[in-house]
Amino acid sequence: MTRLVIRGARLLGAESADLLVEDAVITEVGSVSVPTGAEVLDADGLVALPGLVDLHVHLREPGREDAETIATGSAAAAAGGFTAVFAMANTSPVTDTAEAAERVLDLGRACGLTEVVPVGAVTKGLEGAELAELGLMARSRAKVRVFSDDGHCIHDARIMRRALEYIKPFGGVISQHAQDPSLAGREACCHEGEVSGRLGLPGWPGIAEESIVARDVMLARHTGSRVHVAHVSTAGTVEVIRWAKAQGIDVTAEVTPHHLALTTDLLLGYDPVYKVNPPLRPSEDVEALRAALADGTIDAVATDHAPHARHDKEHAFVDAAFGMLGLETALSVVSDVMVRSGLLDWADVARVMSSAPARIGGLAHQGRELAVGSPAHITLVDPDREVTVDAAASRSRSRNNPWHGRTLRGAVLATVHQGRVTHDVRNGAGTRRELTNATTSGADL
Ligand SMILES: [Zn+2]
């Protein structure tokens, strides 16, 4: 039996307690006497949260291992405090079969640094025309429950309706990248507004997102099925979701750390690191997103971690790839923007970054209370630690990090996944201790 004692952590930021972990399960909470042979992790003054869960990451494997692999993405996830991440289907080949989903699952398990949960494509090849093997993916060893064509909007209402009907019997959910292609054309590369006008860049308007979300909540009502809105970016979308929830419609939503913190004004320097889909919006939208996360209209924070190789990102703004890194900085951004301002406390952070995303994604063993009998997925946070982000120090294989050089308050110091310490920087950046094994040791960590 392996034993780990976490000493003196403040559970959800409240009272201090020790946690005894035996074979990946929490077996004692309170004042624990250390059994002989147990590993001891001193967490005096640190906040203990249930392991973080991310509903939205791009790990790029298979197909773009030059940008990220499941090994490097898993290392970045562990460093960010995540014990489960949902890997989007827009790889090459696309995750649109049971075999493809099982392969992602197995690669994640071989790394063992975080739980990698495959998201299944809704349509074959993400082409929006024909439903993928939703049932076969759900019945596979990967037990896929979240389906998404992320990167593409399911714009055909008939396909969206059929997908919602199909996934209802097995409790699936469709995560929609809401962006009407007839309102946001291929050339659009930033928010349509004052800044896009000044820069002479083709923009896309908030209504391209809001109109799809409005349609989808009505389809969810019509089918009695479940829809999840990926990366909400506008105040108008928040209004639609608030209305839908008030009607009892089964809709959930996520927001990214970058949409909670960064505004479209950053584009004035034409730096493609700020090019992302959906785009950074004006401060009025950012304020609405923060309020919606605080009042529960938006259920979860999800990173949309989107690594890109240099040769895809370092272009003129209009030609650069969309997306930003997010796994390693998510908790620090949420702490800095939402906890310091008093909009969320640590129990709320546990809800929006762990229990709610675990529930939405159908992971019964993640996002659990830090109590006897729960699986040992634990994240330890120093709420007062100031970190200056250094893109070069990232575990990700890519460097498209919009937080580089910024100082954020609040940091993940250690992560425990299935009872094993997968990340530990408690003694400062110079004494990193990270789990490596045969699968990850060859990777570019
Ligand atoms: Zn997306």
Automatic annotation (TrEMBL):
Pfam families the record matches: Amidohydro_1 (PF01979), DHOase (PF12890)
The keyword Hydrolase belongs to this UniProt entry's keyword annotation: yes
Residues bound to Zn(2+) 2: 150, 177, 231
Q: Where is the Amidohydrolase-related domain?
A: 276-421
UniProt xrefs under InterPro entries:
Amidohydro-rel, DHOase, DHOase/Allantoinase_Hydrolase, DHOase_cat, Dihydroorotase_CS, Metal-dep_hydrolase_composite, Metal_Hydrolase
Against Gene3D superfamilies, the record matches this protein to: Metal-dependent hydrolases (3.20.20.140), Urease, subunit C, domain 1 (2.30.40.10)
**Active-site residues, Swiss-Prot/TrEMBL:** 304
Entry's SUPFAM superfamilies?
Answer: Composite domain of metallo-dependent hydrolases, Metallo-dependent hydrolases
Required co-factor(s) are: Zn(2+)
- Dihydroorotase catalytic domain mapped to chain residues: 47-234
Q: Its family?
A: Belongs to the metallo-dependent hydrolases superfamily. DHOase family. Class I DHOase subfamily.
User: What's the protein called, per UniProt?
Assistant: Dihydroorotase
Give me the gene this protein comes from: pyrC
